[in-house]
Amino acid sequence: xxxxxxxxxxxxxxxxxxxxxxxxxxxxxxxxxxxxxxxxxxxxxxxxxxxxxxxxxxxxxxxxxxxxxxxxxxxxxxxxxxxxxxxxxxxxxxxxxxxxxxxxxxxxxxxxxxxxxxxxxxxxxxxxxxxxxxxxxxxxxxxxxxxxxxxxxxxxxxxxxxxxxxxxxxx
Length: 171
Known about the structure:
The chain is elongated. It contains nine helices and no strands. By secondary structure, the protein is an all-alpha fold.
């Protein structure tokens, strides 16, 4: 049986699709198992949903980076390195997407209001900029990030300020 390294050399030199297909068939199940190992914890569902994309990205990178490599001494090690990069990039992407999608829904369920007039009355008592921020985020539907950017305030600093305002409304 010809080694993965020799097959990659054939792919690199001649672009032989059959050699690449052989590598793919040998390593796809192993790659799938390895990438599934990242599907634990907080982002389990999203990573499982992205598993096929991660596999495709991994093997696309293998093929795309074939030319710059003079020789691959340990194909399996290189493949695991690529899979690790793909998995970490996917997790970062998932985290960014979740942060964007939940950005405007930070209002805590524990705020003790049953009547909208009550909360509006308390919002009106807030200092002017705080009141404006709360209205822009929760009444007009802007994201915390977009309000922070338009005000020229660091996102993390602004996010903490919004949480402090919400806590003041809770008490």
